[in-house]
Amino acid sequence: MAELKADRVSVIYESARGALTALQDVSVSVKSGEIVVALGASGCGKSTLLSLLAGFQQPTSGTVTLDGANVDGPHASRGVVFQDDALMPWLNVIDNVSFGLRMQGASRAQREQRAAQVLDLVKLGGFERHRIGEISGGMRQRVGLARALAADPAFLLMDEPLGALDALTRERMQSLLLDVWKQTSKGIFLITHSIEEAVLLSTELLILSPRPGRVVARHRLDFARRYAQGESLRSIRSDPAFTAIHLELLDQLMRETEGA
């Protein structure tokens, strides 16, 4: 079982106005088949933590490892999905999805075969030749997810991937993400501002304090696994236990924010 781990990481940014601590002594472990969600107010260091796990930056102190080996830069073992889909509008759907494989030297036949597989996985089969400007925002986000999956990473790192979508599209994307997780058993680290989304998607939920970001609570939840076992999202959301943890987390976040 693969494990992506941040161990007691801190990040301090130096500027002309002095030092700013973004993260302080944060530990996170993401294993295959788990969805770890980080929830907290804006500025609490969620995106910084994701950047560390992706290898986009190094911690000021502490370590980030993948199966015990230091993470010292980006790698195909960790696919990243951004809030802004960051697609290339001059390329069609399949060429966007297969772009990373092209950079790795895969042949066109290999690239297109793999891209077609992941486009089917995200329910975009038949849209391979469409231009990016011809598809909806939700479909573009699915293209971004397919691109991250194309290299078959062990982990998906998702930075507020559904935040820009309307409510109905966001709900459909939540269901799609859980379907992809169920079918691939990849480890997922996701950050969000939505309490409801965090409760629904996580197998482990981390609450981060306002700056400096610290993990102030951890919750093991089973709603994502219940969906994977066949329970409907409507049934899960109507469960009193779902409402109860939602309200508990809202109260906790309000207290953290008021105390900042």
UniProtKB/TrEMBL annotation:
It comes from the Bacteria. Keywords: ATP-binding, Cell inner membrane, Cell membrane, Membrane, Nucleotide-binding, Translocase, Transport. The keyword DNA repair does not apply. Signal peptide: none annotated. One of its GO terms (molecular function) is ATP hydrolysis activity. The keyword Acetylation does not apply. SMART domains: AAA. Coiled coil: none annotated. Residues 4-235 form the ABC transporter domain. Belongs to the ABC transporter superfamily. PANTHER family: TAURINE IMPORT ATP-BINDING PROTEIN TAUB, TAURINE IMPORT ATP-BINDING PROTEIN-RELATED. This is Taurine transport system ATP-binding protein. It comes from Paraburkholderia eburnea.
